[in-house]
Design a protein that fits this description.
This protein is an alpha+beta fold. It has helices at 25-31, 72-88, 116-122, 164-180; strands at residues 7-18, 35-36, 45-49, 54-58, 63-69, 98-109, 113-114, 126-127, 136-140, 145-149, 154-160, 183-184. The chain folds into two domains: 15-101, TATA-Binding Protein; 110-184, TATA-Binding Protein, CATH 3.30.310.10. The strands form two sheets. Strands 2-3-4-5-1-6-11-10-9-8 form a ten-stranded antiparallel β-sheet, covered by helices on one side. The radius of gyration is 22 Å and the shape is elongated.
């Protein structure tokens, strides 16, 4: 059987938003439902949507930060819905929001166990301190992301700006780990890698 592809899942998309105008947070808090605003505790207002399920921080500078979306498309939909709701509440919004994805966080599974001690010795740009944290931290240069690798073969990928970078990073790190011999291919599977030799565990 051929080598399986890593299974990836986007967990969170963080997007920044610029409205290029100042906002009256007291007015928004007074006229809109599903908002939390306690300026003594935090200078921003929190606007929660059920669909798509997101939480957006809104500041009086006109800046916003949307978190919790499961895709770039969902993040943009949440922002446009909030702006539409503001307009319907007769809050003046002058221009269109400028939306920029700042970070995409995803989980992934490689389908095989990893020897993290060997990976830490052989893989470049890593940090592995198992007494402090059970995962190995790997800084990939292209795409520019940080990957947390766990012995179970599970990964967390963070720092991506575009969705395709998630699958690209997972594929690249899997190829590199196979190349270094630090993956334990499940018993009874060959993945079509006749010459593969895993290092001693």
């Amino acid at each position: 059987m051929p080598r399986p592809k890593p299974v990836t899942k986007i967990e969170n998309v963080v997007a920044s938003v610029t409205l290029n105008q100042r906002l009256d947070l007291d007015e928004i808090a007074a006229t809109m439902p599903n908002v939390e605003f306690d300026p003594e505790q935090f200078p921003g207002l929190v606007y929660r949507l059920k669909k798509p399920k997101t939480a957006t921080l809104i500041f009086n500078s006109g800046k916003m930060v949307c978190t919790g979306a499961k895709s770039e498309k969902e993040a943009k939909r949440a922002v446009h819905k909030i702006v539409k709701n503001m307009k319907e509440a007769e809050i003046e919004i002058i221009g269109k929001p400028i939306i920029v994805v700042q970070n995409i966080v995803a989980s992934a599974s490689l389908g095989a166990e990893l020897n993290l001690e060997l990976a830490a010795m052989k893989l470049e740009n890593t940090l592995y301190e198992p007494e402090q944290f059970p995962g190995l931290i790997y800084r990939m240069r292209d795409p520019k992301v940080v990957i947390l690798l766990f012995g179970s073969g599970k990964l967390v990928i963070t720092g991506a700006k575009f969705e395709p970078q998630i699958d690209e990073a997972a594929e690249k790190v899997m190829d590199r780990l196979l190349e270094l011999g630090v993956m334990r291919i499940p018993e009874g599977e060959d993945w079509g890698l006749e010459d593969y030799e895993e290092d001693e565990w």
